Amino acid sequence: MASRGGPRAAGTDGSDFQHRERVASHYQMSVALKSEIKKLIYTHVGIWLLLLAQMSVGHLKLLSHDQVAMPYQWEYPYLLSILPSLLGLLSFPRNNISYLVLSMISTGLFSVAPLIYGAMEMFPMAQQLYRHGKAYRFIFGFSAVSVMYLVVVVAAQVHGWQLYYSKKLLDSWFISTQEKKKK
Q1: Number of domains in the chain
Q2: CB 3.0 to 4.6 Å from 26: which of 15, 73, 103, 175, for a disulfide?
Q3: Which of 105 and 29 is assigned the larger pLDDT?
Q4: Which residue blocks in the chain are alpha helix, DSSP H?
Q5: Is 40 helix (H, G, I), strand (E, B) or coil?
Q6: Residue of 109, 181, 122 lying closest to 153 (CA atoms)
Q7: Is 68 within 8 Å of 52 (Cβ atoms)?
Q8: InterPro entries in the record, alphabetically (predicted)?
Q9: Minimum mean pLDDT range among 28-37, 54-63, 134-143
Q10: CB–CB of 74/114 below 8 Å?
Q11: What pLDDT score does 110 carry?
Q12: Is residue 22 part of a domain?
């Protein structure tokens, strides 16, 4: 078209190459979704570490049970929820579809299912707290059932968005796979 310092070709201003420099939309979407999922995974790791700390303090009796209550039953299987997050992170470098699918399935089993069980397990104690105003377990002066319901609500949103974005990412990966097969 034109040399570096010389005259331009007739009929062009030199900007007619930009249409070839656009990145395909599914690649742009893949990068954006990976970023969002990483943020959610890091948030999940933060929640997971808080639960691990609460469970460790409760079992090792580092503080009295008046300060930090013993963990609820749903918290034990929820500790396995770190595995789906690791699988999700492992799927990113090479767009590994099988790791992402395993991450999504295991998120349902190890993350969402314990949260549902936890909501059901704590429901009678929450009813007692809100009907009669009596709480028997505490975490640093707050009702343990209230604190743990807050954790369940936040974690359910994190895992729900993580599954949603993972599904969209999986779809974008399938689009790029189909385009590669066409060539």
Answers
A1: 1
A2: 175
A3: 105
A4: 25-60, 75-78, 82-91, 97-107, 113-132, 144-182
A5: helix
A6: 122
A7: no
A8: Jagunal
A9: 134-143
A10: yes
A11: 96
A12: no
Residue 71 lies in a domain: yes
- Crossing angle between the packed helical segments 144-182 and 25-60, to the nearest 10 degrees: 150
At 137, is the pLDDT very low, low, confident or very high (cuts 50, 70, 90)? confident
Mean per-residue pLDDT over the chain, rounded: 87
Query: 142: helix, coil or strand?
Result: strand
The residue among 102, 119, 101, 104 whose CA lies nearest residue 155 is 119
pTM, 2 dp: 0.80
Q: Encode pLDDT of 160-180 as tens digits.
A: 999 999 999 999 888 766 666
Residue 18, both tokens? 């930009």
Token pair recorded at residue 26? 């599914």
Nearest-CA neighbor of 47 among 165, 125, 148, 162? Answer: 148
Q: What residue numbers bound the domain in which 74 lies?
A: 38-182
Q: 19 lies in a domain?
A: no
Write out the two tokens for 141. 């002066």
What's the CA gap between 169 and 103, in Å, rounded?
12
